[in-house]
Amino acid sequence: MIFDNAQRRHELNPDTFEVPTMDQLRANVTTGMYVKVVGGPDPNNLERFWVLVTALPDDDWVRGDCANNLLSGMKIGEGLTFRLENICDYYQPDQEAKGGL
């Protein structure tokens, strides 16, 4: 799976692609919450989807389970590992999403 760098996309499109800052992500992303990432099997076939965070093995790495069935074939529950910079939104199940997507 290839993931898009949400921080870089925001730098290129600050008025139309809002994301939490890296400081916000480091302070707020915890296990049991959902994060939205942009990823897919190749750079020309990317989807936005939610992931349930299951572990934070290092400062900028996240492990989680896909929370959507994707057009690219990934199913709910399949495991993923990605970086904080790939997150474009997040929320706790009892709160509203924080980003602009």
Task: Tell me what the structure shows.
- This protein is mainly beta.
- The protein has one domain (2-91): SH3 type barrels (Roll), CATH 2.30.30.
- 14% of the residues lie in helices and 37% in strands.
- The protein has 2 helices and 6 strands; from the N terminus they run βααβββββ.
- It has helices spanning 6-12, 22-28; strands at 2-3, 34-40, 47-58, 61-66, 79-83, 87-91.
- Strands 1, 2, 3, 4, 5 and 6 form a 6-stranded antiparallel sheet that branches.
- Strand 2 (34-40) and strand 3 form a beta hairpin.
- The longest helix is centred in the N-terminal third of the chain and has 7 residues, at 6-12.
- 20% of the residues are buried.
- The model has no long low-confidence stretch (mean pLDDT 91).
Topology pattern, helix = H, strand = E: EHHEEEEE
Low-confidence stretches: none
- Strands, total number: 6
Number of domains: 1
Q: If helices are DSSP runs of H or I spanning 4 or more residues, what is the number of helices?
A: 2
Mean pLDDT: 91
Rg value: 12 Å
Beta-strand portion reads 35-45%
Helix content: 10-25%
The best one-word shape is: globular
